[in-house]
Amino acid sequence: MTAARQIEHRAATWLVRREQPDWSAEDEAALQAWLNESLAHKAALWRLERGWEAADRLAALRSDRTVRLRVSLWRGPAIRALAACVALALTGTLIARSDSIVPRAVEPVGLTTQIGQHRQVRLDDGSLVTINTASALRAVVDKRQRQVWLDRGEAFFEVAHDPRHPFVILAGDRKVTVLGTRFSVRRDGETVTVSVVEGRVRLEDAQGGGKGAAAIMTAGDVAVSQGRSTLLADRSSRQIEDALSWRRGMLSFDKVTLADAAAEFNRYNRRQIRVADPKAAAIRIGGTFEATNVEAFARLLRSAFGLQVVEEEGVITVKS
């Protein structure tokens, strides 16, 4: 032990001894004699007094539990200060450990597209999401969870297989759960449509509580849910692929009404199609069209069906 350390040790011993109830006049005289031997002795005692006083002030700010622990186990301000320092260190350690153990809330990542736009995003787990026109979703995907909220629009998911962490999509009041597969989810207000290309998908009420049975969907299944009702239908792989042709920037129709075709075009274009009369709206349409070329579609309506087409700045009116 160095001379400096010996002086510090001696000063601490005096400080503790002085707080004992049997501290006597003789002890005080001995302390003063030691202090008078060297300025280093006085400096060491002064530093310890200041340091322990500061620790005592900090200890006064600690919880009642800390104070009770300090009083019951230790006596004397010097030792109390030391106990307070230990308690403070332990408390800080516990707080630090608590921060490291409790999972922090993860902010979802927002993904959006504008009208006529679609984009692909690779998630942290390797899953690939293709987002259709005018859509918005939020995603939290990490080592603990895989969850997506589809706020509006449509997205196609190619989910990386992970049996320990199901991939969950919440769309309105519907919940879609998968382990690894390819499928799409479309949300139009309260209507949610799920189309499965590959694998198995579980579709159920997002709130649980027995509100409607869960549906297990496989490749070729299409489910349309609204409220507590869900309609399941079988489709061929060709029909499913046609319905998802938007991923190639195309729209495929198979004998749908002109009203429905116009509504679909309007999802992808700011220039809207307006069908002016019921007779024109009921015409059946088939074929594949470029999603963002509404003008070409209107010209085909004119040439193929003899419909009247009036083009204005923000709207194309079609009538019989």
UniProtKB/TrEMBL annotation:
<dbReference type="Pfam" id="PF04773">
    <property type="entry name" value="FecR"/>
</dbReference>
<feature type="domain" description="FecR protein">
    <location>
        <begin position="111"/>
        <end position="202"/>
    </location>
</feature>
<dbReference type="InterPro" id="IPR006860">
    <property type="entry name" value="FecR"/>
</dbReference>
<protein>
    <submittedName>
        <fullName>FecR domain-containing protein</fullName>
    </submittedName>
</protein>
<dbReference type="InterPro" id="IPR012373">
    <property type="entry name" value="Ferrdict_sens_TM"/>
</dbReference>
